[in-house]
Here is the input.
Amino acid sequence: MYKLMKNSVARLQNLTKRIVDNKDGVAAIEFAFIAPVMIALYLGLAEVSLLISADRNVSHAAAVTGDLATQEETLNVSEIEDIFNATLAVLGTTYIQSQNVSIDMLSLEVDSAGDTQEIGYASFGTGFASKFDSAGTSSTLLNQTSGLIVTRIKYEYSSPSQTFVQSPTLSETFMLKPRKSQSIPFSSATITCTVINSSNGARANC
Here is the structure.
């Protein structure tokens, strides 16, 4: 009897030792703890990268809009439509995304009395509640010998998962002097444009 109990205890000790010493599945357990953190970190970094890219596109698009506008002496509806289409191409937005994009372009000059006058305004989308306030604009930019083109872009960005970045508003304002004339009047005082879906993607319709 004693010998039987002793053997049973010995077997139990050996079994316990084998269980304690067994390392099978340790890596799988560790991965189960680490994997969610690694996946969340990867997705978060991916969304931040997309946001940074979109923000850079907004800044570049605002510069392109002003640059194209200031290469003209006057701007008509067709030319403004072409400029806005170039802006959308730089942004790289789809038709759905372009519905969250707002662009406006304001042409200013200073008259002989020293008062600032609006000589053209074009808008795309409905994101801007008011026009750019030119009060306080530096006289080195806007004076009687040189007008000013002000372009603004606002993009209600929406992240893919709506988890890490969510929906920030990206915006940029760009100012540039006319290159070929003292100022740049528009053919119509106010030009309004909307987005349409075409075979070439999102397009401006003015």
User: Anything to note?
Assistant: The chain has one domain: 26-205. The chain has a mean pLDDT of 87.
